[in-house]
Amino acid sequence: PPRSTLFPYTTLFRSQIYMTTKKNEEARSLLRLMTKKFPSHVQVWSMAAQHLYRTHQFDEARSLYTRAVAALPPRAHVEIISKFAQLELTFGDFEQGRSLYEKLVCTYSARVDIWLVYINQLIKQKDNSGARALFERVVASGAVNPRKMQPVFKRWLEFEREEGTLESVCAVEETCAGYYKERLGLSVLEGGEELN
Question: Cβ contacts of residue 126 below 8 Å, gap of 6+?
């Protein structure tokens, strides 16, 4: 392909250097140019969003979100919406970030990775009650294939061991055992072994 159509990773790296060295105007103009020249690349939109959120330009970041979703192909929507939701939770409006994640888990309720990213973001933001409610919701929803639920239960146990009590850890273990017994007809032993 012609040189001008190749994705310039060096330019993206240069914009990252501008952001790191607090040359915000240079980074902003370079990222604006790249979103126009390479609108189908998630990395460009992600980097531009990161810059806007870190420099507290929230209104411009939210308008960038609508442009990114319109410009990117549908297969990239999950990734970019998740990135904007993470940035919104971390730097912007917490409720706006939750709203974006809720949209994702409602649309793609069978994808464990989306549930786990959302849960981990809530834990990172110290929203323990929200994380617990989300753990319970993913288990109760039944949308996720039971054979893919192991990472959810593993993360829930880790979370309760760090933030919860002995009773909450036991409750999660009971929930896990009951879930697998009901869905797959399995009994789960303490070592993670399964009995038929």
Answer: none
For tokens 């126009």, the residue is 36
Residues forming beta bridges with residue 194, ordered by sequence position = 188
End-to-end CA distance of the chain: 57
- Cβ pair 64, 47 in contact under 8 A: no
pLDDT per position as a tens digit, 36-52: 988 999 999 999 999 99
Helix ranges (H only) for 108-194 are: 112-124, 128-141, 150-163, 166-184
CB atoms within 10 A of CB 37: 14
**Helix/strand/coil percent split, the chain, to 5:** 75, 0, 20
The H-or-E segment that residue 194 falls in is strand 194-195
Which pLDDT does position 10 carry in this prediction?
Answer: 67
Place of tokens 């929507």: 77
- Kindly state the average pLDDT of the residues 103-125: 95
- Percent above pLDDT 70 for the chain: 88
Residue 71 burial (C-beta neighbours within 10 Å; 0-12, 13-18, 19+): middle
**Of all helices (H) and strands (E), which one includes residue 104?**
helix 94-107
Are the C-beta atoms of 180 and 189 separated by less than 8 Å?
no
The residue behind tokens 């959120």 is: 53
Q: How far apart are CA 17 and CA 113, in angstroms?
A: 30
